[in-house]
Amino acid sequence: MMKTVSLIFLMLLMGKGCGADAQKDMTNTVVDYTANARGFYQRIVVKNQHYSVYKNRRDENDAVVKDQLMSEADWKSLVDEFQKLKLQELSSYEAPTKKRLYDGAPHADLKITYQDSLYQSQTFDHGAPPAQIEKLVNQLNALAPKQ
Fold this sequence. Notes:
The protein is an alpha+beta fold. The chain has three helices and seven strands. It has helices spanning 2-22, 72-84, 134-143; strands spanning 30-37, 40-47, 50-54, 63-69, 107-114, 117-120, 124-125. Strands 1, 2, 3, 4, 5, 6 and 7 form a seven-stranded antiparallel beta sheet that branches. The N and C termini lie far apart (68 Å). Mean pLDDT is 86; it is low at 2-22.
């Protein structure tokens, strides 16, 4: 009986530890969202609770927002959405609309650098991301000042 209880306890403890290791750590993760079309450019880069917003594709030094600290609530919300992502599947998510194909919407994509690996989405319409990344993309876009 004692062996059984010990074995169950050990299995629960090991399972708990593995789950914690499996959680994605955003400390060294870079989330990079870019949307562009003729006359429009927006790039939002998030790293370790700081973000920058660029509106000029030719001059990366000309940031609208440079290395701004996110609020705790925004950071927590972003981390929560990041935890839900299946990074290996990011490139397979289908865009729900195709307006970008006839200049009806800017082209957008999401790149995530996590543990020295780059994960990238397919191109999608700015304002209409795939459902699996919609909340994350909307949170990123909320960081950009309105034009």
